[in-house]
Amino acid sequence: MKFLLLLAALIGVSYCEPTVHFQEDFSEGWESRWVESTKKGSEAGKFKWTAGKFYGDAEKDKGIQTSTDARFYGLSAKFDSFSNEDKTLVIQFTVKHEQNIDCGGGYVKIFSSDLDQKDMHGDSPYNIMFGPDICGPGTKKVHVIFTYKGKNLLIKKDIRCKDDVFTHLYTLIVRPDNTFEVKIDNKKEESGDLESNWDFLAPKKIKDPDAKKPEDWDDNEKIDDPEDKKPEDWEKPEHIPDPDAKKPDDWDDDMDGEWEPPMIDNPEYKGEWKPKQIDNPNYKGKWIHPEVDNPEYSEDKALYKYSDIGAIGFDLWQVKSGTIFDNVLITDDEKHAEKVGEETWGKTKDGEKKMKDEQDEEERKQRDEEEKKRKEEDGKKKDDDDEDDEDEEEDAEKKVDDVEKMDDTNTEEVEEPATDADADEKDDADDKDEKHDEL
For residue 349, what are the CA distances in angstroms to 72, 167, 330? Predict the structure, then answer.
C-alpha cells in the first residue's frame, strides 16, 4: 500500500514538473547557440555581450546589446520542435533600452523548426511576434501578433510598453482555452480571449442583408415647434458701418474713389433664427439593423495551437542602438516563468536602479562643479576686463595731459612763422638801404 502511495506521489510530481523548451541567460559561450543572419549584408549590425552602463549584477545581467545605430539585427536559435496542443505556452524575456531609445523594436519572433537561420529577415514566416516597439511619441506599444492561416493578426487593444532606461520583464501566456495574458514585470497588463481580441475568424453575426428601415420610421427625437414664429424685429444685419468713423481730411474722391466707412459687428445682430425644438410625438427610437448568423463564420477551438514551434529569433531595426536582451524562456508553466522572472530580473532590478541613480547623482555633481567653475572663470574674466578698462582710461587721460603740456611749451618757445607780406616788407627795406649806401 505504501509503495502504491509513493508511486502515485512520484507520478504526481513528475506530471507537475514544468517543461522548459528553451532557456537562454546569455552566459559565456552564447555565440555557439545562436546563428547570425547574413541577409542584410552591410546593413546588418552586430550584437555585443555586455551588462551595459549600469546593472544589478555585472555577470548575471550580461546580455546581448545592439551596437550600431540605424542597422538591422538578425539572430536566432533553434530547439527541439514541439506543439502546444492542449498545453499552455509561455514566452518570456527581458528588455533594457538603456540608450533611451527613440525608434526601434525590442520584440522576439517564434518560428517553426524549418527556419533558414542564415536567411532570416522581416518577411520570414513566423508563428508569434511579441514584445515592445517604440518609434517616437506616437508608438510605444507591446506587439502581440499571431499568424493564422497565412495572415499576421495584430491585437486590437493598445498595450503600452515601458519607455524608460531600465530592464523590464515581458511575458506572454497563451492558454489552451483560447485565452491570453500579457504581463510586464510579472504584473498583468492585459488579458482576454483570442477570438474577440484578434480577427482570427469572420464575425459570428452580420447585418441582415434583407432588412431595411421602414419608410415611415421616424428616428428624429426632436422636431421644430410648428407654433414658434420668428419675431418681426429679428432681422438685423451682421455688420454695420462704423458710426464713429470719419472721412480722412486728405481723402480725394477723384483719386481714392468714394469714401465708405469701415464695417463693424452689429451689436443688435441675433444670428440665424431657428425655431424651438420640441419632443417628436412620432419618434420611434433609433432604428437598429437586425443581425443574422454569418454563414461564413466557423468556430475554431484551437486558435491558440501551433503544431511546430522550433526556433526563436531577434529580427529588428533600430535607429538608436543600445538595447540589451536577456533571460529568454519558453515553457508550458506560468508559475515557473514567474519564478524564473523573480530569480533573474527580480533580484537585480533594485541594484540596477541604485547604480543608475548613483551615476546620475555623480553626473549632476560634476555638472554643478563645472557650472560653478565656469561662473568663477567668467567672474574673474570680468574683473580682469574691468581692470584693463580702468588702465586704458588712465593711459588715455595721461596721454591727453602730455599733449596739453607739449602744446603749452611750444606756444612759449616757437616764434610765429613769417607770412609772405612780412617777407616782402623786409625785401623793400633791404633795397632802400642799398640805394642809400650808393648815394
Answer: 28, 7, 21
| Residue 134, C-beta contacts closer than 8 angstroms, at least 6 positions apart | 97, 101, 102, 103, 104, 106, 140, 161, 163
Q: In 89-212, where do the E strands start and end?
A: 89-97, 103-105, 108-111, 128-135, 139-148, 151-154, 167-174, 179-184, 187-193, 205-207
Listed in sequence order, the DSSP H helices in 311-344 are: 334-343
* d(C-alpha 337, C-alpha 357), whole Å: 29
Rounded to 5 degrees, φ, ψ at 363 are -65, -35
d(CA 237, CA 267): 10
Residue 144 backbone phi and psi in degrees, to 5: -135, 100
| CA separation for the pair 141, 144 (Å, rounded) | 10
pLDDT in tens, 51-72: 999 999 999 999 999 999 999 9
Distances in Å between the Cα of 281 and the Cα atoms of 214, 222, 288, 416 are 17, 9, 20, 122
Mean pLDDT of 175-191: 98
Give the SS3 label for residue 87: coil
Give the DSSP letter of residue 42: G
Residue 331, SS3 per DSSP: strand
Characterise 272 by phi-psi region: left (phi > 0), alpha (psi -120 to 50), beta (else): beta
Best CA proximity match to 74, nearest among 109, 50, 98, 102:
109
Other Cβ atoms less than 10 A from the Cβ of 248: the count is: 9
Pairing of strands 309-318, 71-82: antiparallel
Backbone angles phi, psi at 340, to 5 degrees: -60, -40
DSSP string computed for 120-145? --TTS--SEEEEEEEETTTEEEEEEE
> How far, in Å, CA of 172 to CA of 190, rounded?
10
| Mean pLDDT calculated for residue range 145-163 | 97
pLDDT digits (tens, 9 = 90+) for 306-320: 999 999 999 999 999
Q: Are 341 and 92 in contact (CB under 8 A)?
A: yes
Tell me how far apart the alpha carbons of residues 56 and 358 are, in angstroms, rounded to a whole number. Answer: 12
17 against 438, higher pLDDT: 17
The C-alpha angle 317, 319, 322, rounded to 5 degrees, equals: 90
Cell 519558453 maps to which residue? 330
Task: Decide: helix, strand or coil at residue 306.
Answer: coil
One-letter identity of residue 146: F
Identity of the residue numbered 334: E
